[in-house]
Amino acid sequence: MTWLKGIQKLRPVLVSVFFILTSQGGNCLVVSPVGPTLVNALAGTNVTLAVSYSGASDPVVTWFKGPLPVGTWTINANFPPDIANNSWSVLEIERNGSLTFIDVPLRFTGSYTVELTKSGQGIASATFTLNIYEIIQNVTLITETDFAQEGAERFTLQYSMLQGVVEQEIWRFNGRDLKNSTRYLIEGASLVIFGPNRTDKGSYSVTLMNPFSSVTTHKNVTVLYGPDEPIVEPPPIQPFYKAGDSLIFSCQAEGFPLSIPQWIFGGQILPDFHQGVLNLTNVQTSQGGSYTCSVVNELTKEKREKNVTLKVYDVPLGSPTCSVVSVNNADLQYQCKWAGGMPEAQLSFPALKHPIEQNTCNITAKSPRNFIPTVETSVDSDGKIAVTIRCVSEASPPAVVSWSQGNESVVTGSTYQISSDATQLKIRSYNISTFLLAPNYTCTCRNPLGSQRKLFQLQGPTISDSSLFPNQDGTIITLTWEVPPTSLVTGFDIQMKGPDLLSHSGGYSVPKRSSKEYRIIQQKPGYARSTDVFLLDPDMTCRFRIIPKARLTDGEPSKVHRIGPGDGLSGSAIAGIAAGIPCSILALVLLIGIIFLIFYHHKKKSNKTRYPVSRALEKVKTIQPKAVSHNILNRGLRPPPDYNSLHQMPSERSGTLPMFVPPAPVRVATTV
After folding, report:
1. How far is CA 254 from CA 262, 292, 296, in A?
2. Other beta carbons within 10 Å of 99
3. Which is the most buried residue in 312, 546, 593, 644, by most CB within 10 A?
């Protein structure tokens, strides 16, 4: 070992000699690693730091661990290598200068340097890094306490193992890698969480690795937190309640473990509650006061409270009594009293004062007046139908508004949103049936002097009335319409049936046609109540109607409004008329011919020679009409008169000739 120390002292001199020789161009001693210079080995195995050299024969080889020599030998010398006392059972210097470790222990991990020297040849060196590892076994992850607590300064997780050398460790939270930051600190075998909170609850794991093994272990961490400030529903709490009302209050608070709230009134825990719900029926004025919701975390003993002041008013009995008395015969004193009630009724006469002038003002208390709820419908950015119902009643003091659906009170949540002054209720849903199938809504406006209540049912898109107003030329019309107060309408489709609208140049925007189906020409928002339609052809007939819509649901169309000269004749009617004209003309000609033939025949018959009839014959025809009829019936015929005797000479006649009587005029009538 004394010889080794001497060599260590001469090391700078040898290095100087090496540089001098190399600068003079002499032969150079060179040593080179055989294989990688970073060597990983498993504890208990054999490993060699192999080298090769050239440029000199039988050089002196010296191995160093860090700055300390652990062995030296002259290659091919007859004496054995000089090995450090604490390493002689492990280290061996090979004949080529390599260093071999036998059953290498963990403590031999480090940086090793080999130096070869030869007189006149200089110094050559090479450096190795040797890492000795063990198989990682039995890794466990432990914590200082069973639970992390929100608000604590820190929470630490630490791993331990039976054996093993860790080259790399990875910490994860719910599968996400953790790095050093303001929230986390990884040092040694620990993970420190600064200021733990409820979001740190989850699964933590650590993975330990070296070139020969890898082990991962997990641990679930529970964070105790809360209770948070209790939340009392339904908000907002009304300023006051009337004696006889029924009230339900719910108190909840976030925390782990979950605590059951308690209601305290007058220093006593109330028994009439379940899961934090306080139910007061037929409330009386004696039940007015401060109610406390108390929540305690059973593990951390943290306690939170929420106070709710409940005011219960009772209406005074009967009617106020007023009187006026004379004071010193100069002044009038008015007195007004209203007995009973809680709190007592008070009368005040406020005055406004100014250094120059004093004035007074009066105010009259009024109970809520009758009102009509209004409904506005729109579509929000999420595509949901948003229905806003507004109830406002004139009252002094202002009326407090409450909402209910069926027999249940309406509170603010995912579906319902009540405005800060409670006068507006907003309902949101994708489906219109949510509104139409829901029970009736009730809006109640109340102040100490009375209340007004309105019960109503929402209805689908509907148009109650519509009208059409054309301009003087018939080229522009104005459509107006109305909807029921509780109808849900987000828009309107203006539909038209008839020819297309004219373009600005005076012609049709498309080839002129007459549509048999309604088509949409305009779309209007839900608040619109009128629209104008331009560029109509006054010589054509058009029909219009309005379709109310609630998002994608169409309501019943309005009545149909017509503008134009009328429908006119259809094509088939015109074809029938055209085909019937020749037939009508032919029939008329035939009729005229028939009339002419009848007239001609009658005229010809009237022109025949009429012979005179004897008076005796005429007398017989006149006196015995029945005998003729009788003879005819008995098939007896009277022989006709002998007209030849009428032409005999007077001397041949047996009697006087009858007087000639001209025939009576004949009237001819023809019926067509």
Report:
1. 14, 17, 11
2. 23
3. 546
Residues paired with 342 in a beta bridge: 314
- The tens digit of pLDDT for each residue in 85-111 reads 989 899 999 999 999 999 999 999 999
Look up residue 502 and give its DSSP letter.
B
Ordered DSSP codes for 289-340? EEEEEEEE-TTT--EEEEEEEE-EEBPPSS--EEEEEEETTTEEEEEEE--S
Please tell me whether residues 152 and 117 are part of one structural domain: no
Residues 182-207 as b/e (b if ≥16 CB within 10 A, e otherwise) read: eeeebeebebebeebeeebbeebbbb
481: containing domain: 465-502+516-563
Question: How much of the chain is helix, strand and coil, in % rounded to 5?
Answer: 15, 40, 45
pTM here? 0.43
Predicted pLDDT of residue 104: 94
Domain count across the chain: 5
Structure tokens at 8: 């260590």
CATH number where 87 lies: 2.60.40.10
Contact residues for 456 (Cβ-Cβ < 8 A; gap 6+)? 373, 440, 441, 443, 486
Secondary structure (DSSP) of 47-98 = EEE-EEEESSSS-EEEEEETTEEEEEEETT-SSPPEE-GGGTTTEEE-TTS-
CA distance 340 to 318: 9
- For the four alpha carbons of 56, 62, 63 and 68, in that order, the dihedral sign comes to negative
Q: What's the token pair of residue 361? A: 């003002």
- Which of the 8 DSSP states describes residue 443? E
Rounded to a whole number, what is the distance in angstroms from the first to the last CA of the chain?
Answer: 165
CB within 8 A of 76, min separation 6: which ones?
Answer: 58, 95
